[in-house]
């Protein structure tokens, strides 16, 4: 095979940072009013009490799932294969999509910082639901060694909040 025809290998990632997908105040998963998140049954991560109703991509990657009917959550995949769940509010599936405006759909490639979704904070609060938004690295992903929490206060979408360490 000719040298110039060889495909360049993708550099192996040992870790990567996840920036805050929403501006707001970081809260511990233990404070999330839903045991699926507070007990880390779904995975590790942080939660954000939003100060504005916008979700941006926390890294460059691909949208692997948007909750089609409820529009309240999405799953992104980093180029190394790790998936991250962004779940806007608690029990917001009950709103059946009302107040949620996604700008992406399953299969879309996204760039870090790209607007993924807007949500109406007032609609969620008027329905007496929590705005707290878990950002979770779901369990069961074989390539992950551990998840490190980097922030515990106010954040903006350019501040790293989680670091995912991959197995060697």
Could you explain how this protein is built, in words?
Strand 5 (61-66) and strand 6 (73-78) form a beta hairpin. This protein has helices at residues 35-38, 121-126; strands spanning 15-19, 24-27, 43-50, 54-56, 61-66, 73-78, 83-87, 100-102, 109-110, 115-119, 133-138, 144-149, 154-155, 160-166. Helix content is 6%, strand content 40%. The protein has one domain: Glucose Permease (Domain IIA), CATH 2.70.70.10. Residues 1-10 have low confidence and may be disordered. The strands form three sheets. An eight-stranded antiparallel beta sheet has the order 9-5-6-7-11-3-2-13, with no helix packed on it. The chain has 168 residues and is mainly beta.
**Class of secondary structure makeup:** mainly beta
Counted by DSSP, the helix tally is: 2
What's the number of structural domains? 1
- Classified by CATH, the class is Mainly Beta
CATH superfamily, by name, is Glucose Permease (Domain IIA)
Q: Helix fraction?
A: under 10%
Globular, elongated, flat, extended or rod-shaped: what is the shape? globular
Low-confidence stretches: 1-10
CATH topology: Glucose Permease (Domain IIA)
Distance between the termini: 30 Å
> Cα-atom Rg, whole angstroms?
17 Å
- Strands of the widest sheet, in order across it, are 9-5-6-7-11-3-2-13
- What's the story with the biggest beta sheet? 8 strands, antiparallel
Query: Which architecture does the CATH hierarchy give at level 2?
Result: Distorted Sandwich
The average pLDDT score comes to 91
Which sequence of SSEs, written as H and E, runs from N to C? EEHEEEEEEEEHEEEE
**β content, as a range?**
35-45%
How many DSSP-defined strands? Answer: 14
């Amino acid at each position: 095979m000719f040298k110039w025809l060889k495909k360049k290998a993708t550099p192996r990632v040992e870790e990567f940072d996840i920036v805050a997908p929403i501006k707001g105040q970081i809260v511990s998963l233990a404070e999330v009013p839903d045991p699926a998140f507070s007990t880390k049954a779904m995975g590790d991560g942080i939660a954000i009490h939003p100060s504005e109703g916008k979700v941006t991509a926390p890294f460059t990657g691909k949208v692997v799932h948007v909750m089609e009917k409820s529009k309240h959550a999405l799953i992104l995949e980093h180029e190394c294969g790790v998936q991250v769940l962004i779940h806007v509010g608690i029990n917001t599936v009950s709103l059946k999509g009302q107040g949620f405006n996604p700008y992406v759909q399953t299969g879309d490639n996204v760039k870090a910082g790209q607007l993924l979704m807007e949500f109406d904070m007032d609609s969620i609060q008027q329905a007496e639901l929590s705005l707290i938004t878990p950002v979770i690295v779901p369990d069961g992903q074989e390539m992950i060694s551990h998840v490190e929490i980097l922030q515990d206060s106010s954040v903006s979408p350019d501040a790293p909040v989680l670091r995912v360490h991959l197995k060697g």
